Amino acid sequence: MADTRNSGTIMGDKAIAARIQQTREHLDRWRAILKEPERWVSVWFLAYALLGAVSSGLLPILLPLMIVALTNHLSWVAYVMGGFNLGLLTSPLWGILADRKQLHRPIFFGGFLVLSLALAVMPFLPGIFTWSGLSLLAGAGTSAVATMASLFIVEFDPQNEWEPRLGWLQTFNGGGQVGGLLLAGIFVSNFKAGLICSALALIPAIWLGAKGLPTAAKHYGWAADVGDHMRRDLDWRFLANFGRPELLGGGLLRFSHHLSLRGARRLGDVLHTRFGRFLLSWFAVAFGVAAFFAYFPVAMQKAYSVAPALTSSVYAMAAAIALVLYSVGGQLSGRFGAGRVYRWSLILRFLGFGLLLLVFFLPVPKTLTALAGFVLIVIAWPLQSISGTTLTARLTPVSQGAAMGLFNASGAVATVVGTFLGGPLVQFIGYPSLSAMALLGILIGWLMGHGLQAPSAAPAHPDDLTAQKTQQS
After folding, report:
1. Three-state secondary-structure class, residue 178
2. Which residues in 427-443 are b (16+ Cβ under 10 Å) and which e?
3. Residue 401 has what pLDDT?
4. What's the pLDDT score for residue 21?
């Protein structure tokens, strides 16, 4: 009897000890998680967060509202916002200039200065050509900072630290975007003060950059073009699984220096492949939604009776949720296949824009219906972005670097062209044209996205195209 009690006591003590050990392991794991950012985060990441607050949070709300309020010319919104998107396409220029002349810091700080000055003078110099020119400069400044921010990591830090540092960099930018959207709700009634405060907010960014950026590159035993190494060596499966902000849902700031001119030279090699069909699908979707994202704060106010402050607040909450959904999208892509998730995301966006168009034809509550549709549109973006990135890596018959350049270029060019086209459409047809254009582009993209990747499809390799050409010859 005593032996039985002793054995029971011993087993109980062992169970308690095991629980204590398990609790300690959990605490150690949480301590490691909480300390993890210290390894990868630098002070100058806060400067990139301020860039996200201004370029991805405040400007998309304030600029369209200011233009319409001061001019009553709806088409001007498309031209001014199109100028900003056009300025973002200068990223290859900054990357080439930095690689050849080693002007990383001057380009980084110069980008902040140009963006700040453009925003500061914009409220005082009205006019379509002046605003478009200043918006172009603001986009170019934003592109310069975004390009250098990524290059500072891949040229100044060892290769095994690129991915976590880039992940945290884009997360800071996403947090800044959410904060900027919340601040935009405060300034919607005073656009001049909002733009001036946006310009002033970039001054601390320059100070943070001056304090935290390294002064000279640290070489780690590899030479040649840094951009080429980054495009070739980064694990795109990893990049598809961390949250990153997307400007206006169009994704022009994903990795600006990956808007590769070299990748565009391979366009003819991939058009006849499944990857080429995916690029056309991506182009159609980006083209379709571009005009809406140029006009959305104005359209939500004028067509759907949603106050600009409410629009920016809802967008901020949706963007915050979206940062979490990137990891969910990566898990879904791994479980069900990126091709399926890509088409599911298009269905969600189709439903969202369908609700926006529905209010013009049926007696439904405009405000609630429009907000529901808008949330669907924003929430669907992480699924579309991650599945699109994954499909790019798996379907490409060329190098993944060239493929990423084509992928980003197709979305960027489609966004610029679609934004400019939105001006005449809104001017002559009205706000329903924005939703109709988006629905048409998404439908075409969804149809072209059918059968892109079978569940058992293996990732494509750079040598596939060479083998295919050899067999054909």
Report:
1. helix
2. eeeebbbbbbbbbebbe
3. 63
4. 74
Question: CA angle at residue 439 from 253 to 266, to 5 degrees?
Answer: 45
Q: pLDDT below 50 — which residues of the chain? A: 2, 30, 33-34, 217-233, 235-259, 455-473
Domains with residue ranges and CATH for the chain: 41-214+235-463 (1.20.1250.20)
The token pair at 348 is 């969600």
Cβ neighbour number for residue 327 with a 10 Å cutoff: 14
CA atoms within 13 A on the CB side of 148: 29
The three-class DSSP label of residue 301 is: helix
Residues 122, 169: Cα–Cα separation, whole Å: 29
Question: What gap in Å lies between CA 65 and CA 190, rounded to an integer?
Answer: 10
Query: Exposure string (b/e) for 188-223, b if CB count within 10 Å is 16 or more?
Result: beebeebbbbbbebbeebbebbeeebeeeeeeeeee
What single-letter amino acid sits at 241?
Answer: N
Give the span between the Cα atoms of 61 and 81, in whole angstroms: 11
Give residue for tokens 């892109």. 452
Rounded Cα distance between 314 and 370, Å, is 11
Q: Tokens at residue 66, please?
A: 């200011």
The reported pLDDT for the residue numbered 114 is: 96
Q: Given this model, what pLDDT does residue 285 score?
A: 95
Under 8 Å CB-to-CB from 419, ≥6 apart: which residues? 78, 81, 82, 85, 290, 291, 293, 294
The number of beta carbons lying within 10 Å of the beta carbon of residue 168 is 20
Contact 453, 290 (CB under 8 A): no
Structure tokens at 231: 């495009």
In the DSSP assignment, the letter for residue 1 is -
Q: How many CB atoms lie within 10 A of CB 93?
A: 16
Structure tokens at 202: 């970039």
Query: CA nearest 403: which of 419, 388, 417?
Result: 388
Can you give the pLDDT at residue 134? 95
